Amino acid sequence: MVDYPLGERFAPQRWQDLVGRDSIIERLQELRRVAHAEDRCIESLLFFGDTGLGKASLARVLANEAGIALKTREVQAIETGADIAGVLTAIERGDLLLIEEIHRMSASAQSVFASAIQKFSIDLQIDSGRYARSVPLVLPQFTLIGTTNDPSALTEQLQDAFLVKCRFAQLTIDEIAQILGNQASKWDLGLDKEAALRIAEHSGGKPAVAYRLLDWVARYCHATQRVKVNEEATIAALWVLGYVEANA
Question: What pTM does this model have?
Fold first, then answer.
């Protein structure tokens, strides 16, 4: 049996792997051009849009294309001053720092990161109470990429600190079907156009959902000994999940 894993094996690696994000890609390429000409880091970026639209995936592609390190941090692990210091002191010049769901960060932490990406320095709070003191910390140039499905939850200070904001809209059915076709080709999976469109119709315009459905359809077809993933087989697989009626 061929394994059709989820997760990072689905993730696009290069610009040409992305579908439906041409405008964002063009903007990022120009930002990279300017950064290279000035020997500076790329401007920090806020990617916003619904969950599952490929915001983190595009951040990884940007890192690959620019040939720079991508460091990912969980927002749940950034709560205290010590947490923030640990993240920022691990940064090296030119790094991309990806923080998903950045709107979940506390207001005080957002304030620190706003200063970090605007001034490349922060005032680090040491100790508390009568022993509290502020120590200036100079940071290397880096790029923060924050992703969010609720930009209104960001503090005004952090919103203003992000000079570049990119909105991720839902993809069309045809765009999702193209993504599925590309993935099926990598798997050497016999996915016909009608089957891809059927899956795309139930994806909500989200690549992440489409990948999960494709994974299920492929597994279903293998288990039922179907050689080709056609529309009939796809409908049967989607019926098991409750996405379609038996006679759809």
Answer: 0.88
Residue with tokens 């930009």: 151
pLDDT by residue (tens digit) across 130-181?
777 778 889 999 999 999 999 999 999 999 999 999 999 999 999 999 999 9
In total, how many domains does the chain have?
2
Domain that holds residue 99: 21-167
Instruction: Give Dmax over CA atoms of the chain in angstroms.
Output: 73
The pLDDT tens digits for 175-204 are 999 999 998 888 888 899 999 999 999 999
Q: Does 125 share its domain with 237?
A: no
How far is it, in rounded angstroms, from Cα 130 to Cα 128?
Answer: 6
- In the block, tokens 């207001």 appear at 107
Q: Are residues 136 and 179 in the same domain?
A: no
- Res. 1: pLDDT tops 90: no
